[in-house]
Amino acid sequence: MKTLIAPIPSTFFFSLFLLSIFTSNLPSAAADVVTDRDGDALMNGGTYHILPLFGVRDGGVELAATGNETCPLTVVQSRTSKIFRGLPVIISSPYRIAYINEALILNLAFASPPSCAPTPPKWTVVKDLPEGLAVKLPGYSSTVSGWFKIEKSSLEYLYKVVFCARSGGTCGEVGISVDDEGMSRLVLTEEEDDGIIVEFMKASSVGV
Fold first, then answer.
1. pLDDT for residue 6 is more than 50
2. Rounded to whole angstroms, how far apart are CA atoms 4 and 21?
């Protein structure tokens, strides 16, 4: 008598695929917790200002309409003044943990975007643009699938924001490209160590 073996559902293999993606990007036990400018650990789901430092001008990050955009979809560095903190950003991970570790898969989303912006207002990376790989909100068909993460910079207590594409596993640091109108757009850099160095400030903090 033949022994019949039931076929394994395709959903099982898909679940294994998703599990392999997330487990391969879990921080190691030695990964350090990311801290803000007060020395406190970044909370998973907390709201912070992302402040670029050293060699770049102006203030925190915000949104602007560039090219043919009728709604501000482009993530830029504020031109208002050096003390402007930009729009607050929610920094969260799909993992059920309390704090943000270095190299952890992250979602970055503006906490108070304009009413015309897509919901949720998560940061994405868009390809095939004149400025290269640009950091924007959803709304473009040429979005690159992937995730953001925070890595330690060469300077103590300061960090870099990195984007890793799901296809090919390549990662690039988030840097700044100044266009002809003087707009400082956030883009992925082609060279290692060309990204901006940032610090994080609680959105509830006062002062600069």
1. no
2. 32
